[in-house]
Each structure stands twice: as structure tokens, then as C-alpha cells.
Design a protein that fits this description.
The protein is of the alpha/beta class and 223 residues long. It has a single domain, classed as Class I glutamine amidotransferase (GATase) domain (Rossmann fold, 3-Layer(aba) Sandwich). It contains five helices and eleven strands, in the order E-H-E-E-H-E-H-E-E-E-E-H-E-E-E-H.
Amino acid sequence: MNRIGVVVFPGSNCEYDALEAMSALGAEAQFVWHSATHLDGFDGVILPGGFAHGDYLRPGALARFSPVMEAVAQFARAGGAVLGICNGFQVLTEAGLLPGALQKNRGLTFLCQPTTLIVESTKSVLTRGATVGQELVIPINHFSGSYTCDDETFASLVANDQIVLRYKENPNGSRDDIAGVSNVEGNVVGLMPHPERAMSTLLGSADGRVLLEGFVGAPVGAH
């Protein structure tokens, strides 16, 4: 994989971080405005963090209706690698591309801090380069980051090995310490922590590299 589209919604604010992280890993990254109707030529797509459409109604609720999301859905159905980070994770759940939902943090507190994650599955385009049980220090920066789902969905997540990352010490009240999940096929992944902000020990941690290297190196789908 070497050409990555970074979707930009009105209100996105982490798109440059994602772009720089991809470039640092040798990928050719390009911004894609939310009005785009196709993703031709891309090997992977990232929905970055921020406040898409101002988080009106609830985070991701309006972004799911942007024209680009139909293109993202088609890209995902064709096997393309899709990654949603923080607000991007929220958008993917609202669009039905990932199960569950993100609600306000326990205690209604905004959180911005380093967090230790545990890799739970390597059967995804994000965690394919990691090892099960590996601990990674990745920062979080969210107010609505508590993952929730009903019992049936949770049972399905466990049965299909879709829980890819858990918090070592749950910061936000997420069900079963969940920090990131994938679709059944493993080519669509969402997580609340920001691996693109953990690319160098000079900034506190380089643990995000193992995740994003896996994403960049993910097999190209049939799109």
C-alpha cells in the first residue's frame, strides 16, 4: 500500500497529523474533501480526528451523510483498508461501517493523556504488524470516547475476534475496556486513541508506528 486518502470534513483538525504520519512511513498521502464521490486510485483511507460538522446532534451524526461516505462504504465493501481515528471512529459507527457507538466519557470529563493499550487481535489491517498482548502507549484526546454496544453485538465482537485493542486501565468507561474494533473482515478499523500522535519518542512515544506500519502495509483489496 502506498497511496492513502485522508478524508477532511468541515471541523476535522487532525488531518495534517495523519498526513504527516503516512508520509513518514513512506506512503503517498493526499487530502480528500468530504464532497468527493469516489476514492479511485487509493490503497487505503483514513478518517481523522476532530469535530466533523461541529459534532452537531452528536459526533459523526452529520458526517455520515457527506457524499464521501458512500464512496468509503463502497471502498470498504471492495476490501479496501479503512481506518477511523477518534472522530473518524465515531463517523464509522454512525455510518454503520463498524458496530457499536461512542458515548460521553464516564464522569463527563474531557480526556487528553497518554494511555496504555493492549493488542487483542492481529486479524485487522491496523494490528497485523503487532503481537497479541503487546502493550502500546498511545495518547487519547476525546470527550465522547466511551465505547458501548448491546449484548448481542458484544457477543458477536468476541466470537468474531473484532476487538482489536483494549485499554490496560480504562479511562473513559468503555464496555469491556474496548479501545478499538474492526468489522468482521478486518479491513475496517476504528479506535479512539491517536496512533498518528505517537510516531516519535521525542514526542513521548513511537508506539503508534507499529499500528500505522501495519495499515500502510495492509494487502490491497479488490477495489
